[in-house]
Amino acid sequence: MNERVKILRDTLKLTLEKFGERIGVKKAAVSRWENGDKIADRMVLAICREFHVNEEWLRNGTGSMFIVIPSSAMEQLKKEFNLDDFSYHLVYEYLKLEPAQKTIVNNFLQSIVKEDEATCNDISSETCSVAEAEEAYIKSRSKLAKKTEQSVLNTTEDAAKTDKAVNQ
C-alpha cells in the first residue's frame, strides 16, 4: 500500500505537502507512509474519498486506481451537504428511478413522516406517561409496518400483472 500511495501522489502530480494538506496531515506523515509506515484505516478512507481512489486498489493493488464518478453535480452535492457514502448512493439511486417508482418512494417516506408526527402529538402531551408514550410509539410502528407490507404486496402484484400482460 505504501508504494501505491507514492504512485497515486505521482499520478496526481502533488508534492508531499499538497497531498498531505488535502487529507489533513503534514508532509512528514505522507513521507513516512511512502517509506513503509503503517497507514491508519481512517487515513486510507480519507485518501480514497478525497482523491476518488478505489479502496481495493489502494489496499490490495487490485482493480483500477480511481473510481468512476457518476457526475460532477453529484460530487458537488456530496461536498456541499457532507454526504457519507450511503447517503450519496441513496440520493444517486433515487434520482435514477422512473417517475412511478419515485412516487412509491415518496408516498412511503411521507407516510413515515405523518406517522412520526402523529406519534409525537400522541406522546408530547404533558399528561402522557412513559408507558403510554412507548405504547403509542409501538402502535404507530405496527401501523406503518402493515402499510409498508401492503404497499410492497401491491407493487409486487402490479409488477406481476404487467409482466403477464407483456408476455401475452
Q: What can you see in these coordinates?
A:
With 168 residues, this protein is mainly α. The chain contains nine helices and no strands. The longest helix is centred in the C-terminal third of the chain and has 38 residues, at 130-167. The radius of gyration is 24 Å and the shape is elongated.
Individual helix count: 9
Total strand segments: 0
The coarse silhouette is elongated
Rg, please? 24 Å
Strand percentage: under 5%
Mean pLDDT: 80
Q: Quick one: biggest sheet?
A: none
**Termini Cα gap:** 56 Å
The percent range for helix content is over 70%
Helix-strand pattern: HHHHHHHHH
Query: Which oligomeric form is depicted?
Result: single chain
Low-confidence stretches: none
Global structural class: mainly alpha
Summarize, please.
The protein contains 9 helices and no strands. Helix 2 packs across helix 3 and helix 8 packs antiparallel against helix 9.
Descriptors for this entry?
168 residues; mainly alpha; 9 helices
Secondary-structure blueprint of this entry?
Blueprint: H1 2-12, H2 16-23, H3 27-34, H4 41-51, H5 55-60, H6 72-80, H7 85-96, H8 99-123, H9 130-167
